[in-house]
TrEMBL record:
EC number(s) stated in the UniProt entry for this protein: 5.4.99.5
Presence of the UniProt keyword Isomerase in the record: yes
Protein name (database record): chorismate mutase
Taxonomic classification: Bacteria, Pseudomonadati, Pseudomonadota, Alphaproteobacteria, Sphingomonadales
Enzyme class: isomerase
Length: 102
């Protein structure tokens, strides 16, 4: 059983920090999985020009916006975070595409 408290149950900064550290570990694991999908996309896409897909970028951002609204999270904050995540993902995918096709 985890000793990580829910945010509303924290009474000390040690509990808050333990919770943040736990969330960060989970986020890193999820980002690693997301980048695994970027590796797969680089392998599957037929050519380098297919890596940047503005329609898909807008679709992802719209879905994140809806999820943020549903979760009661600042939508502008998530939009900025995802803009960086998506652009970093595209750069990674281009790098993988170039390394595996040269």
């Amino acid at each position: 059983m985890s000793n990580i408290r829910d945010p509303q149950d924290c009474t000390t900064m040690a509990e808050v920090r333990a919770g943040v550290d736990d969330v960060d570990r989970r986020i890193v694991a999820l980002i690693a999985r997301r980048f695994g999908y970027m590796d797969a996309a680089a392998r599957i896409k037929p050519d380098r020009t297919a890596v940047r897909d503005e329609w898909r970028k807008a679709d992802v951002k719209a879905k994140v916006d809806a999820a943020a609204a549903g979760a009661g999270i600042d939508r502008a904050l998530l939009s900025r975070l995802y803009e960086d995540l998506i652009e970093t993902s595209i750069a990674h995918e281009l790098d993988v595409y170039d390394r595996t096709r040269s």
